[in-house]
Design goal:
The protein contains 20 helices and 27 strands. It is an alpha/beta fold and 607 residues long. Strands 3-2-4-1-10-9-11-15 form an eight-stranded antiparallel sheet. The protein has a seven-stranded antiparallel sheet with strand order 5-6-7-8-12-13-14. A hairpin with a 4-residue loop joins strand 9 and strand 10 (187-190). It is globular, with a radius of gyration of 25 Å. The site of 6-O-phosphono-alpha-D-glucopyranose has 16 residues, from helix 9. The site of 6-O-phosphono-alpha-D-glucopyranose (G6P) has 16 residues, from helix 9.
């Protein structure tokens, strides 16, 4: 996936490039590099590993120049070493690239036949040689790029600079995102509005297939057929101060603590306080007419979708299918002509979710996108958009995006239930009130932080952890296991509590903590049997429950986290917090890189 930035500045741009890369590091952190024009010549600094390594290189060997590009990498083609670090360059052109050039083998063979020799294992080097060869054949930079773009298959966002052209930068996007920033006598390119936030809030988003020619005071945009087009300039909602860590040691912890407020903001957008009702009247989706919902998503967003299945089926009596987007897109699922699809994605960029959504649209399903980034490809291509108001989520492990997704989905399920006559006005009022009460209860749950840290100390010393839950606590169990795996590297599995006896029970011994999410309600007694099965085999129980559950089951547990008592509908929203804190503190105590766990990236724009 990778992050890219380009600056046509007034003075030296190296420090702004590094600063921008710091905000892009969530997109990849295998290696990083910058290139500028120094007296008209391309010069580069690159380093393997985290950005701080590049910062050290630049400190030892400063890079002047007011025209530059930068890149932070999540390796796809070629191992993450110095040689394969971007920018890739020859004496004429330097390129940073986010995406994958799928036909690079064929292009490479063509170029090799022309006597080009290769210095990296990357697909991106192909772009450098293609442009350079076109220029050697007599084309100017713009014509050269234009001729090369049409030969590239796959996904790309590119920023390109040229030796001897101090006021020229070319960008292009297909599949991967790219935004143009407008400054005072300066112009910028960046993977998203977050990287550009401290430089400018005036943004032009390129459409898929667009490419653009920037100088310090001009901008030309062309679409995929090379016709000149106008794209609007918009004010980005992201400001520089929204993307700091504040007083928190990690973005993840800051984002966990933001949940009461961002869940409140997200609810606010759909709650009519005068009528005390949730409202989705603006949504062009008639739930009464639907006979099926298909939900597609990846990672944490998938677990939000799975939770929503329980809600839509029980409250709105509508059958729901939830699929991992990377599976759904290839399995040629028959979709109901009376159905609709929901694509859930924090970034709105995840390529598998985007492609799954394109498949659903191609089959005639209207697609509703639930995204945190409204300028994203998924939002743009959807038939309708619902926004989570989580604000920028930087920590790679998703937290506040998850609970704001749950918030919108729970509210929508209540709305759909009412529309379809499946719940009464009284039920609607009761459930809406339960939802509206969640932000305040989340703030209370955060008070458990210290005791969860202590429990996490024990978890951090183990090799395997099981998470169990029933009903809508089952997806949460899987999300808890995912969180722990992602950031602490402890193996964990989330299971439906009732399914445990069909396999995972064999894993239980006194070295395996078993985290059980068991709010009181219709499932408590059933979960109680499973808890006793664990206890009987010496399993170390960490019980997350409320006062009723603690009374019923507390005696069997090594640790109990007592939550406020809530309607079981909204319990996943609240129980997400101890799950997140447990993973966070276990990771901190293991000394892992919480915000940038190994091998992961925040948004995955490759298959
Ligand atoms: C990556 C991230 C996860 C995220 C998933 C889906 O794997 O590490 O935290 O849940 O992508 O991302 P999306 O932006 O589509 O929600």
């Amino acid at each position: 996936m990778c992050g890219i930035i380009g600056i046509l500045g007034q003075d030296g741009v190296a420090s702004d490039l590094l600063d921008g890369l710091r905000r892009l590091e969530y997109r990849g952190y295998d290696s990083a590099g910058i290139a500028t024009l120094v007296n008209g010549h391309i010069d580069r600094r690159r380093a393997e590993g985290k950005l701080r390594n590049l910062a050290d290189v630049v400190q030892d060997s400063p890079l002047p120049g007011r025209t530059g590009i930068g890149h932070t990498r999540w390796a796809t083609h070629g191992v993450p070493n110095l040689t394969n670090a971007h920018p890739h360059a020859d004496e004429r052109v330097a390129v940073v690239h986010n995406g994958i050039i799928e036909n690079f083998d064929a292009l490479r063979a063509d170029l090799s036949a022309r006597g080009i020799s290769w210095s990296t294992d990357t697909d991106t080097e192909t772009i450098v040689h293609l442009i350079s060869a076109a220029m050697a054949d007599g084309l100017g930079p713009v014509e050269a790029v234009k001729s090369v773009i049409r030969r590239l298959q796959g996904a790309f966002a590119l920023a390109i600079i040229f030796a001897g052209h101090d006021s020229l930068m070319i960008g292009a996007r297909k599949g991967s995102p790219l935004a143009i920033g407008h400054g005072e006598g300066e112009m910028y390119l960046g993977s998203d509005a977050i990287v550009l936030a401290p430089l400018t809030r005036e943004i032009t988003y390129l459409e898929d297939g667009d490419w653009c020619v920037l100088t310090r005071d001009s901008l030309e945009i062309y679409d995929s057929s090379n016709a000149a087009v106008d794209r609007p300039k918009v004010e980005s909602a992201v400001s520089g101060d929204m993307i700091g860590k504040g007083n928190f040691p990690h973005y993840m912890l800051k984002e966990i603590y933001e949940q009461p407020s961002v869940v409140g903001d997200t609810l606010q957008a759909h709650f009519n306080p005068a009528e005390k009702r949730l409202n989705f009247e603006d949504l062009s989706l008639d739930f009464k007419a639907l006979d099926r919902l298909t939900i597609m998503a990846c990672g944490t967003a998938f677990y939000a979708g799975l939770t929503a299945k329980y809600w839509f089926e029980s409250l709105a009596r509508i059958p729901v299918e939830v699929d991992i987007a990377s599976e759904f897109r290839y399995r040629e699922a028959p979709l109901s002509p009376q159905g609709a699809s929901i694509a859930i994605s924090q970034s709105g960029e995840t390529i598998d979710t985007l492609e799954a959504m394109r498949f659903a649209r191609g089959e005639g399903n209207p697609v509703l996108a639930l995204v945190n980034v409204t300028e994203s490809a998924i939002a743009r291509e959807a038939d309708a958009v619902l926004k989570t108001l989580a604000g920028p989520e930087i920590g790679v492990a998703s937290t506040k995006a998850f609970t704001t997704q749950l918030t919108v989905l729970a509210a929508l399920a209540i709305w759909a239930g009412r529309q379809r006559g499946a719940i009464s006005a009284d039920d609607e009022a009761r459930l809406s009130q339960a939802l509206v009460g969640i932000p305040a209860l989340m703030a209370q749950v955060l008070n458990h932080d210290d005791s969860i840290r202590e429990i996490a100390g024990k978890v951090a010393q183990t090799r395997d952890v099981l998470y169990l839950g029933r009903g809508s606590m089952f997806p949460l169990a899987m999300e808890g296991a995912l969180k722990l795996k992602e950031i602490s590297y402890i193996h964990a599995e989330g299971y439906a509590a009732g399914e445990m006896k069909h396999g995972p029970i064999a894993l239980i011994d006194d070295g395996v903590p078993v985290v059980v999410c068991a709010p009181s309600g219709p499932m408590l007694e059933k979960t109680a049997s499973n808890v006793e099965q664990v206890a009987a085999r010496g399993g170390r129980l960490i019980l997350i429950t409320d006062a009723v559950g603690a009374k019923r089951l507390g005696g069997t547990a090594e640790d109990v986290i007592v939550m406020p008592t809530v309607d079981s509908l909204v319990a996943p929203l609240l129980y997400a917090l101890p799950i997140q804190l447990l993973a966070y503190h276990a990771a901190v105590q293991k000394g892992t890189d919480v915000d940038q766990p190994r091998n992961l990236a925040k948004s995955v724009t490759v298959e």
